[in-house]
Design a protein that fits this description.
With about 400 residues, the protein is α+β, with helices and mostly antiparallel strands. Helices cover about 40% and strands about 20% of the residues.
Length: about 400
């Protein structure tokens, strides 16, 4: 058996000749066989089919050339010195960079156990050394089509991943904008402490809330829920929160009355053609008298916890926004005393399900709020989130989770 000097990368290129016809100009085949005469005959046949052909005289050299060239197709003799054909197959399949390369093994005998071993170790097909020129052409063309398909799929996957990265960056930018719409924790008005926890189920959430001072005497706050998920819900929620934050809201509504605000929102945000809608809770706190006036459009997430009287859910059964343009909404007053804590919550907090599909519910949330009433607001809110997560045995919420606390401190 003749020996060959290990080729350099320049020698690899020197081995191949330009194709005559049939195969694409870039289509390459690596032939690995320790029989020099067989290689000469096979190379002539493959070049006649239009392929650029490279040769290696043993498995070790063939593996090195395969890794460097990454040909469209590799044809391997079964029995060779240093590394056998199945050994080369197995090593190639361990390298993710070579996964698209098709490998045809040439076993010495057409035995079922050889076919089984070859397939198990990574071969894509088999060909006898005595195959006719017609069979050689058919098998080589079929293998090349498979390689082309796999590489096209890999390119498409890379394009998709690149677009996903662009979309992810855009979503992150949008999420930062959404967060900028949320109020700063702290003291929005004398005697009021604001705290909140917010965890959207996706990068963009459709449950938002706001707190804003009106002149010197009024503090307006709200929580809304856009039906649906993702970008669509977030965009619609942004539109509604922009309306509620508008400097011209008082002029558009004509009063500080929460039911008037909801009535105007109901007119401006009808049910979409896809059936998407909002629920909304609005409160207006008159600071000189500590009188809270509130109204709700299908949003049930407000509970007043007080050291002076039992906890009370501040919610009504009015319709969500947009179902009926003629809907009327009612405002009711509640007196806020020193030490009271008003919690606004999205249904993502209390509507978590256990692995047995049991609802945690408002009762579970209320139990935590009342049990920890003597603790700081931050501790209470953390315990609520932890209890909801423990109930569902998961750290991520299936829906947007928002919990806001307005505590009267003086």
């Amino acid at each position: 058996m003749d020996r060959m000097i290990q080729p350099t990368s320049q020698a690899f290129d020197a081995q191949a000749e330009s194709p005559d016809h049939g195969a694409p100009p870039s289509a390459t085949i690596l032939l690995v066989d320790d029989d020099k005469l067989f290689r000469m005959i096979m190379v002539a046949r493959l070049k006649k089919l239009g392929y650029r052909v490279f040769e290696a005289e043993d498995g070790e050299q063939g593996l090195a050339m395969l890794r460097h060239l990454q040909p469209d197709l590799t044809i391997l003799d079964w029995m060779m010195s240093k590394l056998s054909g199945p050994d080369v197959c197995e090593l190639v399949r361990q390298d993710p960079a070579l996964k698209s390369i098709q490998i045809i093994l040439m076993p010495g005998h057409d035995r079922p156990e050889d076919i089984e071993e070859g397939l198990d170790r990574g071969a894509d097909g088999f060909m006898s050394k005595t195959a006719s020129p017609q069979e050689i052409g058919a098998r080589v063309h079929a293998a090349h089509r498979t390689t082309a398909l796999l590489r096209n799929l890999a390119c498409a996957h890379d394009v998709i991943k690149a677009k996903e990265q662009i979309m992810l960056a855009e979503l992150q930018s949008a999420a930062l904008f959404m967060e900028s719409l949320l109020p700063e924790p702290g003291v929005p008005a004398p005697g009021i402490q604001l705290s909140w926890h917010y965890q959207p189920s996706l990068m963009l959430g459709g449950d938002l809330f706001g707190v804003r001072r009106w002149c010197n005497d009024h503090l307006r706050f709200f929580i809304l829920d856009a039906s649906g998920y993702g970008v669509s819900a977030a965009l619609r929620a942004t539109a509604l929160i922009t309306f509620l934050h508008s400097d011209f809201l008082l002029e558009a509504v004509g009063s500080y009355d929460p039911s008037a605000i909801i009535t105007e929102a109901n007119r401006r945000f009808p049910l979409t053609s896809e059936g998407e809608y909002f629920t909304l809770w609005v409160g207006d706190l008159h600071l000189p008298t500590w009188t809270l006036r509130l109204a709700s459009a299908g949003h049930a997430g407000a509970i007043l916890c007080s050291p002076h009287h039992p906890s009370e859910w501040l919610s009504d059964t009015d319709m969500p926004l947009g179902f009926d343009p003629e809907s009327t909404f009612t405002t009711r007053p509640v007196q806020i005393q020193c030490g009271d804590r008003l919690y606004l919550t999205s249904d993502g907090i209390d509507e978590t399900l256990s692995p047995e599909q049991e609802l945690w519910g408002k009762e579970g949330l209320q139990d935590v709020l009342e049990r920890d009433a003597a603790r700081s607001v931050y501790e209470v809110m953390n315990h609520c989130v932890q209890a909801s997560c423990a109930w569902q045995q998961a750290e991520d919420f299936p829906d947007d989770a928002a919990l806001v606390c307005l505590a009267r401190t003086a």
